């Protein structure tokens, strides 16, 4: 008899609860709940994209927030020129993030280790200061998004619509990641993380695989930025700051680096913990920091790793019980 997977049931429960957030916000008269969970989903989408290169590819990118910023500015700049067509904004986001990701990836992926980290950070800082210098688009003060993305059948100007679009994208990307990492592409990418020299000796063009993953992650992060600009009604160079990239890395590690569902749980746990601790103390960072360290030290694969380890122990006990019989 096949044992129940508690990790999968837990993820299913989380998704079910997320589906009913708008109804809860309306019935309880808590519009902040809808806005807050929308923010969680946007950051979860960016964290899932980072997990592709960090968790499965072993590439520690400290400039991933750059693409969130590009997506946000694609909306903000076009809106300032009175272009609110969502498909055009999405097209600009995808093209800009793919082009920047391809160029920076070709340079960065020829290095590894600390050099890769510093180069990705340097590129992100370059674009950060570029947008700070663009005074016609707000400079350091940022840019108000005057027109929300209108896709014809729906508009992201509606908070409920934006929420369900963000949730649908998160679920779609999670399913795509699940299929991708189990396919040949995912196998090669994970092989590169473990031993790239051996993968090259087997005849795989490892740079091509890693660059494809890097560009794909950049585009998904850019789409998260597009949603974030519609959510906040703002585009700012601060979205590209290295601190945002660090926050995304924490979400991936906290949730479960190298697991499909870990980044979603990491975003939920981190952002919910921040909100709860802010209501308790002004020094919430001093409490949150040790809690993150504790999770990372006690679980190799973060919060989701706890559930996977639980499933593993139950499976081993079941095997032993069958052997005794």
From TrEMBL:
Transmembrane helix keyword on record: yes
User: Principal localization?
Assistant: membrane
From the record, give the transmembrane residue ranges.
37-57, 64-81, 87-107, 114-131, 161-181, 207-228, 248-272, 284-303
Where in or outside the cell it occurs: the entry states:
Cell membrane
GO molecular function ontology, one term from the record:
branched-chain amino acid transmembrane transporter activity
Q: Does the keyword Transmembrane helix apply?
A: yes
Q: What GO cellular component entries does it have? A: plasma membrane
Keywords from the named record = Cell membrane, Membrane, Transmembrane, Transmembrane helix
Task: Look up the domain of life of the source.
Answer: Bacteria
Membrane topology, as annotated: Multi-pass membrane protein
- The protein's name in its UniProt record: Branched-chain amino acid ABC transporter permease
Annotated organism of origin:
Rhodoferax koreensis
Q: What is the lineage of its organism?
A: Bacteria, Pseudomonadati, Pseudomonadota, Betaproteobacteria, Burkholderiales
